[in-house]
Amino acid sequence: MDGTIVVGFDDTPQSAAAAHWAAGEARRRGVPLDILQAWPWHEPHVLGSYDAVQWARQRLAGRLVELRAEFPGVEVDAAQLPEDAADALEAAGRTAVMLVLGSRGLGAVRGFLVGSVSHRVLGRAACPVVLVRTDDADSAATSAAREVVLALDPHRPGDRVTAFAFESAALRSAPLRAVHAWDPPAGSEYMAFAALGSLDAELEAAARRGLAEALEPWRKRYPQVRVETRTPRGPAPVAVVEAAAGAGLVVVGRHTRRSPVGPHLGAVTRAVVHHVQGPVAVVPCG
Fold first, then answer.
1. How many domains would you assign to the chain?
2. Could you tell me the residue range of the domain that residue 281 belongs to?
3. Are residues 5 and 104 in the same domain?
4. Which of 87, 152, 239, 284 could make a disulfide contact with 232, Cβ separation 3.0–4.6 Å?
5. Same-domain check for residues 186 and 278
6. Distance between alpha carbon 96 and the CA centroid of its chain, in Å?
7. Domain edge (last residue) among 78, 105, 137
8. Residue 60 dihedral angles phi and psi, to the nearest 5°
9. Could you tell me if 174 and 148 are in contact, meaning their C-beta atoms sit under 8 angstroms apart?
10. Are residues 193 and 109 both part of a single domain?
């Protein structure tokens, strides 16, 4: 497998968790790990004295030593760059296998905080971006046997997204759960009960058919992966978040679409990023 895994590190607990998860993933994939620490301390308005830079460099070196000791089979390197963190990570992502970032939990109701750097990287990165939770003691080992959940729209399947999910399941020897939610069209609630029941049955059958057809080529390519499908009725963001409970990894797609206020992740991806407890992989579709 070519390329490296790049993890953003700023000495926060969430970035430490991300680095640990990334090292385990690098070992699983047989690729090197690069720890990237970046902030524009060369700019006059940025607080970054010589002592602060040296302290950050020491913390980065300490993390490098720890990961090399814990993952002796993984080639681990580190770099400190005087650049904007999002720009540096985006540049690294052009040649990386994946980027790994940490995200902080805000509680069951409020979800997870995705900072400005993570949000910019999620919307712009050319490779998959994995968000790791601070309290996810995953280490890429304890979650290895837990299933991989794939949010898939058969009408816009995205080969890169499906390939990443199947590959991740195969590397973990874990089952794959593919989820596609469906909802009756607006206004159907005014139909007669018998007609509505018939429509629901038709829509559910069509959802199952479409999902099976989208997965068939990948089942053949990865016959060792046990696949389960779910086609719940209801809003897709809610259905996918519920289906992802307890998963070792959740995989969602990102269609490149810009809005006046920045990258648009889509309702399902946004819900998963903010409300799923475990690691989340956001994969660019095109």
1. 2
2. 143-286
3. yes
4. 239
5. yes
6. 15
7. 137
8. -65, -45
9. yes
10. no
